[in-house]
Each structure stands twice: as structure tokens, then as C-alpha cells.
Design a protein that fits this description.
This protein is mostly helical and 158 residues long. It is 55% helix and 6% strand. A hairpin with a 7-residue loop joins strand 2 (78-80) and strand 3. It starts with 6 loop residues before the first helix and ends in a 5-residue tail after the last helix.
Amino acid sequence: MAEAKSTPPIRALFMAALDSLPRPLTDDVIDHVFCAIERSPNLLDQYRQLCDQFGKLVVNTRGPRLVGAAVERVGQSRVPAMSRLIHDYSKLDQPAPPRIDRSGAEEMARKDVFDFYVLHKGRMPENAPAMREEIVQRVLDGLPVSQAFSDVLGKAFE
């Protein structure tokens, strides 16, 4: 899958913070990454610029996903954060599931997202087109299209 335009700079920031952490990493690695960003004036400046450019929701959603992929861990339980940049985070307490070949799945996900958007265009917020890649990624991760739109846009779609 081609990366969204926001992913490379967000990846660079979060991987730099991840690389700065002592090893071994714990299940709280996402919070530790945000704390590392907070402690470093350079990383914090980059974080703020990315939030201005792409929105805090995009940065704070995509960054942790990239960290989880880098450490090959996932988690479901949300816990309060020590970092002031986020309220809570997922503890990465499970091994990531095996990667699936998505050769045809991406094309299908993009079509499903487009079709859903056209069907509900009148109810979509103005920023919906800018969030397309995040929505497609969530569909590829297994969410139903309506749930992916709801999660990313913060609005219920039935």
C-alpha cells in the first residue's frame, strides 16, 4: 500500500523517539515514546509542527500504530498516560498477528470506502477526504467501513 502523505514525517518522529528508549521495551512503549517526545525540545517541536500540519488526531493515531508495527506488538486495553501529549494509550501486550497478503484487499477497501463516502456524502464533515487514507487503513485492519468512518471522523454512520 502506498503510504499516506503524512506517514513519512510522522514515522520519522516516532521512530526517532522509539530509538531513544532504553531496551528492553515494555508494554508501555507508546507512552514512553510520547514521554521521549515531550522531554526532547527538538522532537517536541517536530511533534507540534506535525500536529499543526496534519492535526493532532492524525499524529496521535498514526504514530502509535507505527510504533506497534515497529515492535511487532498490539494491544486492546487502554490505560491512562503519563505523557501530557495524550490522555490514554493501548498497552502493547500481545504479539502482532501474522501479516496478510493484501494485494487485492487494498483495491477492494478503497472501492468500499469511496462507495460509502458517495452514499453518505451529505453527512460527511469537510475533513473527510483528508482522512481517506486513515479510513482505508482501518478497513484493511478489519473494521467494517461504517465503523472505520465513525472512528476516524468521530461521527456515527449507520
